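USER:
Before I trust my own judgement here, I would like a peer's view. Write it directly below this note and I will take it from there.

ASSISTANT:
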Amino acid sequence: MQVTQMLTAVIAGGLLFLPLPRGGIGVSRHDMVRAREGAESNRVAFHGDFAGIDRDGDMLWTTADSSAAGGLALRIQPLGSPMTAAEPVWPVRAVVSGRDSANQPYTTQLLGIIDWQKGSLVLQGEVTAGVRRGSQVLEDGSMVDFDAHGTITFIPLAALR
């Protein structure tokens, strides 16, 4: 099974496998929601305007219109081949850079899907740089008129245990 098929099947099945730094464990969507609702979690709402394609060929959304003081940049790279670009669901890799609601800088590495028919975006991964390094991240959003709207939730490792 290809990685993109496995990722799509895993997300569709309701079980997310998060890349944890020390060996990794499977975390159910229920655990993610429970941790998200915990006192230690932190959410950043965003509305990103499509800014075009950057020089690396990634799609770029930017915003100054978020609960993050310094805005955010969302770069998405489709993982499929050029022949699969017409498909309604794309497996993607994403990098989000910005500042959280406490004005702390962060960079995340995420994997997930964009479902163009439903207009939905689901990404998960971890913070790779900044004060929240190692925290898990869940991004739920929608794509409306090619603009991205949604919420980024930071989940410290302690909240998952």
User: Anything to note?
Assistant: Residues 3-160 form one domain.
